[in-house]
Amino acid sequence: MEELRKDDPITAENADNNEFANYDDEAEAGREAEERKKREESDRLLPPDEDAILEVRHLKKYFVLKKTLLGKPISSLKAVDDVSFKVKEGETLGIVGESGCGKTTMGRTVLKLYQPTGGQIFFKGKDIAGYKSKEMRALRTQMQIVFQDPYSSLPPRSTVGDILAEPVKVHGIVPKSQIKEYVLSLMEQCGLRDYYYERYPHEFSGGQRQRICIARALAVNPELVVCDEPVSALDVSIQAQIINLLKNLQKKRKLTYIFISHDLSVVKYISDKIGIMYLGSMVEFGNKKEIFDNPMHPYTIALFSAVPNPNPDEKSEHVILKGDIPSPVNPPKGCKFHTRCPSVMEICKHIAPEYKEYEEGHFVACHYCEQALKNKENV
After folding, report:
1. Is the pTM of this model over 0.85?
2. Taking burial as the number of CB atoms within 10 A of a residue's CB, which of 50, 114, 266, 284 is the most buried?
3. Computed from CA positions of residues 371, 358, 85, 264, in that sequence, does the dihedral angle turn out positive or negative?
């Protein structure tokens, strides 16, 4: 931690109580950026994890809002800011967070639907972050997405048969003579009747449309599927059907999912690992059991407290977060969550916490957690 400036008028008597008075936040932000850059450069030299089908390192996606006349960015929206994680083959990674925290942008950037601003994306051991559209074409059959809205993500003038047959034709999955048979088999696997083949999207309910979207994603036999809030627009009873369908298809096809949602009960049911995002950054990451049994970050604890308890005899304390999510265009200095955190300390307002592994496979970015563990050790 840097010393206070020499011209600081704080006396020795109260220096400890005012450790961060007149602290140079801009200089600290610059130092943090330099350290982050050094970590990225050192991590770039490390080989990819052989056990992981997908490994993301220091992923960034910034949307430029203003430029100079020469094209230099003046203002950027940091939708995804230094996110890292690994997913093994056959696993489901649940990504949780409030609306606007960057979940969807992160999923689309991993699939290269958005070009990443920085970082590495290892898919099956190859860094695809710098791949051009022609290079990505060969990978499109291995990486797919199920979009959130089943109403707007299907072309209204195409029949179900045409929607599902198109990617099969484009990528040459089966010979032309076998396409209809292949599509009908796929529809059956996704719980769709064969007579739906000639129908149009507007003739179906939301749950049936989402089944069509899932069938379209699986038409090219992918290995990784990003599920972008696939059940948020559906009734609870239909949600259960779609989630069970996804789990059954995962077993049959050995699929790997990145499941994006704000519904913790759904994420708990389907996921093996969970990542908690806030304002573009990963604040906590770990195995499902660790995250639900021992949530460490105050934001994670607040999210869990918002889940209704079905037992009326048990009293649960609700952690109410004050204020709104800050703008990703101008995020707060220090910890991004400090403006709403119920456990905020003075250091949180000035120095960004390090994303550290506190238990095996359990990563947290929080000064309060670090301080709490130190106090535990000293007792």
Report:
1. yes
2. 284
3. negative
Where would I find the beta strands (DSSP E) of 89-183? 92-96, 118-123, 126-127, 143-146
Measured CA to CA, the distance from residue 220 to residue 164 in angstroms comes to 9
Of 92, 51, 29, whose CA–CA distance to 256 is shortest?
92
Q: Which residues pair with 273 in a beta bridge?
A: 93, 287
Strands (E), 279-354: 281-287
pLDDT at 107: 94
CA 314 and chain centroid, separation: 32
Coil, strand or helix: which one is 361? coil
Which DSSP helix (H) or strand (E) runs through 52? strand 52-67
Q: Is the distance from CB of 334 to CB of 9 less than 8 angstroms?
A: no
pLDDT tens for 2-17 read: 333 334 433 333 444 4
Predicted local distance difference test score (pLDDT) of residue 180: 94
Measured between alpha carbons, how far is 140 from 91 in angstroms, rounded to an integer?
Answer: 20
* Local structure of residue 19 (DSSP, 8 states): T
Burial of 233 (0-12, 13-18, 19+ CB in 10 A): middle
**295 — phi, psi (to 5°)?**
-65, 135
Q: What is the pLDDT of residue 32?
A: 84
Say if CB 212 and CB 160 are below 8 A apart.
yes
Give the SS3 label for residue 282: strand
Q: Which of 24-33, 181-190, 330-339 has the lowest mean pLDDT?
A: 24-33
